[in-house]
Design a protein that fits this description.
17 strands; about 450 residues; GFO_IDH_MocA-like_dom; TAT_signal; nucleotide binding; alpha/beta; 9-stranded mixed beta sheet; 2 domains; 6-stranded parallel beta sheet; Gfo/Idh/MocA-like_OxRdtase_N; Gfo/Idh/MocA family oxidoreductase
Length: about 450
């Protein structure tokens, strides 16, 4: 097996070149426009690229969010994940009374040996099948490239957040999103907070002036160190690349660090409330608890001051450390009062008072139902730029903390040349990057 892995080599140039060629051939065969759909009747054929836990979660909810959606293809770098996902989707879970449960989707699964793929090119092979839509849930490092190939191939895309780990990737996602509009394709991002009922209503009231003129905000997300995530020990047969892929959450080149990979949700909430992106930021951060080698080059705490237009300043504090307080909410302050926004409710205080509770409807179902409906009705639904800008908001904070330098949105979006892509996508040696040291790590 290890000898096989050593020969599975794909340079970055060959990877991108092959992706583009595969996308062109599929587009040439299928045409530039998506199929016409009769509202609520025609099947939507789904492919999953990235068969980990989040991929299975998103695919399950997509399958049960609307009628006539079928899973026809799977792809992942690792074959055992493809096999595990296939077993899960084709099982028939029942409750204590023997009745099918809500997650019983076996009748919607049309997978075959010929449509389940493993390896570095698994995503290209999924796109070469007759899928109408793909779910992208590989580590964020691969998302810009896979989105590009999917849009060029004429596929609708649901992609998890974040959508990049560096400014080069953000710019690629924006370009792909613009191409999607030209081709009439939908893109939905996994920012389910934007479909939680009480947050949607809270944003409407903020827009209607419930807080007056917004002046400042806070964003808190503190929690545990996630020490139980992923394999705890390295299998002797794994190359360094494979070990990093299996521990990708703690590798900045793969995840973007936790401020990008997880806390993009919370920063997206702030961007949503302020209806824009920050103009500049300055940050601090480091690692005090998670210092072992298996935590790669990731930090375990960040603090960022974001400045938005019109003098609005928002402070973000995030940490993944055991034994600390665990606040998790956003707070917006205006001239007439304030609003506290969290997963369970929105509370307005000041001249206007109100408490809006979550209606308990699953936003993860809503996001997929919205996309399936847009596909069938030929409606524009493209969240690519929105999530790309929220991703860059988080990336800016990480870059500032890593280097100790302040930076502007304009420079990060247009000037930064930071590209965390490794020299080659291959199983083999890959040194873990050194932990960033503010004041020493170079700003690129």
């Amino acid at each position: 097996m290890e000898n096989q892995r050593k020969h599975e080599r794909l340079s970055r140039r060959d990877f991108v070149k092959g992706a583009a060629a595969g996308a062109f051939s599929v587009a040439a065969l299928s045409g530039l426009s998506p199929r016409a759909y009769a509202a609520g009747s025609d099947k939507v054929r789904l492919g999953l690229i990235g068969c980990g836990g989040r991929g299975m979660h998103d695919t399950l909810r997509c399958l049960i969010s609307a009628p006539n959606v079928e899973l026809v293809a799977l792809g992942d770098i690792f074959k055992e994940r493809v096999d595990s996902a296939r077993r899960r989707f084709t099982s028939r879970p029942v409750d204590d009374e023997g009745k099918p449960t809500a997650d019983n989707v076996a009748d919607k699964v049309k997978l075959t040996e010929e449509t389940c793929f493993a390896g570095w090119d698994a995503h290209t092979k999924v796109l070469a099948t007759d899928v109408d839509m793909v779910i992208l849930t590989t580590p964020p490092q691969f998302r810009p490239m896979m989105l590009k190939e999917a849009i060029e191939a004429g596929k609708h895309v649901f992609m998890e957040k974040p959508v990049a780990v560096d400014p080069v990737g953000v710019r690629s996602v924006i370009a792909s999103s613009e191409l999607a509009d030209q081709k009439g394709l939908t893109i939905v991002a996994g920012t389910q907070m934007r479909r939680i009922s009480h947050l949607v209503e809270a944003m409407k009231r903020i827009r209607d002036g419930a807080l007056g003129t917004i002046q400042s905000g806070q964003c808190f997300r503190l929690g545990g160190a996630m020490r139980g995530w992923g394999p705890q020990q390295r299998d002797p047969s794994w190359s360094e690349m494979e070990w990093q892929l299996r521990r990708w959450l703690f590798m900045t080149w793969l995840s973007g660090d936790f401020i990008v990979e997880m806390h993009v949700h919370d920063l997206d909430l702030i961007n949503w409330a302020l209806d824009g992106s920050p103009v500049q930021c300055v940050a601090l951060g480091g690692r005090q608890q998670r210092v072992e080698p298996e935590y790669g080059d990731s930090y375990d705490h960040f603090a960022v001051e974001y400045d938005y237009a019109n003098g609005v300043s928002v402070s973000y504090k995030g940490a993944q450390q055991d034994g600390i307080a665990n606040p998790h909410y956003g707070h917006i302050v205006g001239t007439k009062g304030s609003a506290r926004l969290d997963f369970g409710r929105a509370v307005f205080e000041g001249d206007y008072t109100a408490e809006i509770a979550w209606d308990r409807h699953d936003p993860c179902l809503t996001q997929h139902a919205d996309q399936i409906a847009a596909i069938r009705e030929g409606k524009r639904l493209n969240e690519g730029r929105q999530i790309a800008e929220s991703t860059l908001t988080a990336i800016m904070g990480r870059m500032s903390a890593y280097t100790g330098r302040a930076m502007t949105w304009k420079w990060a979006m247009n000037g930064s040349k930071l590209d965390l892509t490794p020299p080659a996508y291959e199983f083999g040696d890959l040194p873990t990057p050194e932990v960033a040291i503010p004041g020493k790590t170079r700003l690129i």
